[in-house]
Amino acid sequence: MERIEILKMTEKYTELPQYPAILAQYFIFPSFSKLETDITADVLIVAEGISGITSAYLLAKQGVKATLIEAGEILNRTTGQTTAKITTHHGLIYDQLITDHGEEKASMKPTLKEWSLSKD
What we know:
alpha+beta; 2 domains; 3-stranded mixed beta sheet; 4 helices; FAD-dep_OxRdtase; FAD/NAD-bd_sf
């Protein structure tokens, strides 16, 4: 059986950096031992990718006892090597938009996307 890492978000690690930083450099996470006993949690999150970390963080901020389990080491793969931000503008090439449509229309893209996400 693979080693399972446990991160109890309500006990520690509820503060994220104000400015983006590579999480693996910003936080020093301890090693966790293999889960060998029963645990109790309001929410169990399996895997610590950006969605798992974000979910555990937001739940912990609301006082929910969230437990995160991971088969490998915490923040040792893709999420640990990113600036850990979620944005509506990722993958957008503004230079190409400006070239194709001009600065005024290109500057409307983020506003329109955020507006569309706010609709029911």
